[in-house]
Amino acid sequence: MSPLVKIRSERDRMSAVERRIADFILENAQLLRDYSSQQLANALGISQSSVVKFTQKLGFRGYPDLKYSVGEAIGRVEGDDAPAAGQRGDAIGAELWARKTRAEEATHAINAPATVAAVVAAIERARRVFMIGVGEDDLHVRTFAMRLSLLGITAIRHADVGRMAAQVGMAEAGDVLMVFSEHGRHAALARIARFVRERRVHVVTVTRHTANPLRAMADLALVVAAHDDASYVQALIYQSTVQQLVDTLFVHLCEGDEQRHQRLVENFDRVQQLLEP
């Protein structure tokens, strides 16, 4: 994994001092080769030992190892991506694309393949999949619920917390509750998750890569790394990264069962025929 991707993916779980170091490295990666650990510490007004501990916490032997790895990563990006970015012509669009790509890479890195496979397996085995997200989180819920229905999987989706609280009353052992909550701190969603867990329903959460109540009570937690200094960009990056994560689950479900894939094709055809003028 690229050291810059690793730093981005772990940033939200870092202490305040560690985030300062991380942000400096991410914003000044090209200049890092000119900084010793002491110079970096002086620039941030922290101790040299804090810099050394930061690098070791990320799994590097020391600061020189981190600096060398960052230099290699920058070289690969410049060699591979510079021409493509130039061809786009739109500098703002190209930079936004790059930010989204970095977030998706970081998110892919922190969600273990075994976790993704376990979520797919839980959905496949479930009699019903209950899904909820509030506000913008509902955008992904709505799309994913529709796609599950095209695969022949029963998906019960609500954006209204009260209605979902009533619906989960029919939940049985082996069903799945998927909760989409960016910050994972919605109290009502946490109560619903706690209720269904008592019924041995599998709770799957999709939240930011932070410590939060919903993630803590999940049987399976999918997490999103989408930090950006500009709040308006961070919101865009989070939404696109969640969509990439959900799309990955959908493709796994499509390719994991030929009969299910055939059902999807048939349903697509039927919908198209019904919508034709």
Automatic annotation (TrEMBL):
Residues of the HTH rpiR-type domain: 1-77
GO BP annotations listed: carbohydrate derivative metabolic process
Signal peptide: none
UniProt keyword Protein biosynthesis present: no
Entry protein name: Transcriptional regulator
UniProt xrefs under InterPro entries: Homeodomain-like_sf (IPR009057), HTH_RpiR (IPR000281), RpiR-like (IPR047640), RpiR-like_SIS (IPR035472), SIS_dom (IPR001347), SIS_dom_sf (IPR046348), WH-like_DNA-bd_sf (IPR036388)
Pfam family, one: HTH_6
